[in-house]
């Protein structure tokens, strides 16, 4: 059982006149923020404000690159060639790095978003392209990854730094891939249930899958999606339950 775990949330996904999530409240409860980089959500003003908020609350900042799919919120697969994938990811990390430089914040990690993140778990070629993008930008940057996935394997092969991530608000298949959002039960919105699942994954190394099976899982960081309607309450419940069971919350910049 871990005595300290990271708690992360996808943030900065508002853009223009469109408001998504409750970033100002959530940022005060988490230890790491995955900041949208403008392709699936976010814009320069939102990126700037999110990094500024993270600095104010001593929260670790990570780049959250996704497919160029604003209408689909980056949750639709886009068929791209190797160089397109590498340049798309490098471009987005670089954009966020500029705001980190502006606010004198060290970028802490990279976490792929949406369909891109799901696809690298099952597509070895795409996993290699994504890993090569991190290699090209900064091989010292840790990458959030699903445990035992193809992306996890590729990162290890390339001597990159995987950080094992578990999801409090998403259902798992037996192979530890995430259940498609098109299916009933894929998104967990009950804060109490999400908190119990988070504690079980961290304290026992187990998760109950969509089929009802118990599967081994390892996690160093717990994710709650910022656009989950109950995200704020869910994060509060997770923090409380972890604390009651002797697990502290800390970002990787302090671990």
Any overview of this molecule?
The protein is an alpha/beta fold and 255 residues long. It has eight helices and ten strands. Strands 1, 2, 3, 4, 5, 6, 9 and 10 form an eight-stranded parallel sheet that branches. The longest helix has 21 residues, at 82-102. The radius of gyration is 17 Å and the shape is globular. The protein starts with a strand and ends in a 6-residue tail after the last strand. The model has no long low-confidence stretch (mean pLDDT 95).
Record keyword descriptors for this entry.
single chain; 255 residues; alpha/beta; 8-stranded parallel sheet; 37% helix; globular
Please write the string of helix (H) and strand (E) elements.
Answer: EHEHEHEHHEHEHEEEHE
Instruction: Compute the separation of the termini in Å.
Output: 16 Å
**Strand segment count:** 10
Sheet-strand content, in percent, reads: 15-25%
- Helix segment count? 8
Instruction: State Rg.
Output: 17 Å
- Kindly name the structural category: alpha/beta
Helix content: 25-40%
Fold topology:
Blueprint: E1 4-11, H1 23-26, E2 32-36, H2 44-56, E3 60-64, H3 82-102, E4 107-110, H4 114-120, H5 124-137, E5 142-145, H6 150-157, E6 161-167, H7 191-203, E7 206-208, E8 214-216, E9 221-224, H8 231-244, E10 248-249
Parallel strand pairs: 1-2, 1-9, 1-10, 2-3, 3-4, 5-6, 6-9
Antiparallel strand pairs: 7-8
In short:
With 255 residues, the chain is of the alpha/beta class. Helix content is 37%, strand content 18%. The strands form two sheets. Strands 1, 2, 3, 4, 5, 6, 9 and 10 form an eight-stranded parallel sheet that branches. Strands 7-8 form a two-stranded antiparallel sheet.
């Amino acid at each position: 059982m871990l005595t300290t775990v990271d708690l992360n949330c996808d943030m900065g996904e508002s853009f223009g006149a469109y408001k998504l999530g409750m970033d100002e409240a959530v940022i005060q409860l988490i230890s790491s923020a995955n900041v949208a980089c403008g392709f699936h959500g976010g814009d320069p003003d939102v990126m700037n404000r999110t990094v500024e908020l993270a600095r104010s609350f001593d929260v670790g900042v990570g780049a959250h690159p996704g497919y160029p799919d604003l209408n689909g919120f980056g949750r639709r697969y886009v068929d791209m060639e190797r160089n397109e994938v590498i340049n798309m990811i490098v471009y987005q990390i670089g954009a966020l790095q500029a705001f980190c430089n502006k606010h004198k914040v060290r970028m802490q990690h990279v976490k792929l978003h949406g369909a891109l993140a799901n696809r690298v778990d099952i597509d070895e070629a795409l996993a290699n392209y994504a890993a090569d993008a991190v290699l090209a930008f900064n091989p010292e940057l840790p990458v959030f990854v699903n445990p035992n996935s193809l992306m996890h394997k590729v990162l290890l092969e390339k001597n990159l730094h995987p950080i094992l991530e578990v999801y409090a608000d998403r259902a798992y298949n037996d192979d530890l891939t995430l259940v498609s959002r098109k299916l009933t039960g894929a998104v967990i919105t009950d804060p109490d249930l999400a908190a119990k699942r988070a504690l079980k994954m961290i304290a026992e190394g187990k998760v109950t899958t969509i089929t009802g099976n118990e599967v081994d899982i390892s996690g160093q960081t717990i994710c709650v999606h910022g656009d989950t309607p109950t995200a704020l309450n869910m994060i509060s419940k997770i923090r409380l339950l972890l604390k009651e069971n002797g697990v502290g919350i800390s970002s990787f910049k302090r671990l």
